[in-house]
Amino acid sequence: MTGDSMGAKLVHPIPPPPRGAMAALWEGWIPAWDRLAEEPRGIEWINEAGRFQEGPFYDESIALLLQRHPRIGRNVSSPATVHQVAEAIDGLSPSGFIFHMSRCGSTLVQNALRCLDGTLVPGEPDVLSSLLLASVPGPRPRGAAAAAQAERDALLRSLVRVFGRRRTKRDRRLFIKFASLETVRLDVVRRLWPDVPWLFIYRDPVDVVVSNMARPSGWMDRPTPEQVKRYFGWGPRTVDAMTREEYCARAVSHFCGVAADSADAKAHLLNYEDIDLERLVAVMDAFGVHPTRAERARVEKSLRVYSKDPRGKRRFIADTALKRRIAGPAVHDAVKQWALPAYRLLNRHRRRIR
Questions:
Q1: What are the extents of the domains in the chain?
Q2: Average pLDDT over residues 35-55
Q3: pTM for the whole structure
Q4: Of the four listed, 69, 234, 297, 309, which is most buried by Cβ atoms within 10 Å?
């Protein structure tokens, strides 16, 4: 397959093929990377040709596919073609969205949803993250800013529909798990899909801070001052004065605060400490899914394995006691000052799954 309008401009643009032909032309192609900051602007796809195996993290699954098949087909399309593909394919509308505060059991919940027959659950696709976290206009955009927001919104809608493309006739549900930092753009997702239920997963912030201090999440790697201002509203002087423990505690507090402020009738809040088979079934019920006996058995089995192992062969070992034991005074002080109020607010919230 060759590129479309990504090359030289045509004096007489070639119209897109009919819908059926368009769907057939893009059969097996899945979005991989955002190239919108480059010239020519576009989305890069790879041709998985039935070889893609969905794991806990979409981008790791892409990397594994490329490692196994280095000569796999690749193509860059314009945003206009993304919309045309989305309109042509047999795509699923989202059944639910998963947000979380980082290192809190979100992958475990994602894996439980994957136990449902005919269910697609892409985990934290970077191509969606790049769009959501890009610089966005204020609440009343004008001119070029309004056009940029409209383009971003339309591309998000189309890409989510592409992620919901039925690969088999059995596929009938789509859930998308976003990365923790994307919680700061929860308002965008709620505006574009107001009728879709969503889940926010959280955990005692001591455990989350300990985990991020040991293995920093992407947002822990001190983004640029412009990014920090965009994500959290903090100025560079404020950030420079923070310890790493304070930075992490304030970030996870921000995620929890956004979730609490956004928790409408479509919201559901789940504490990591409450996760068990019955609560996961309650999550599914909230998403309009009633698992069969066989599906419940698979969900129960999934709780016994390490959630981030794509092969599902490592047994789950509870680590809460260890995290509490190794958390030092700096962690406890930062959590007490910055994160505990938001955590307790979620615990008292009427939308919490109990």
A1: 92-118+172-348
A2: 91
A3: 0.91
A4: 234
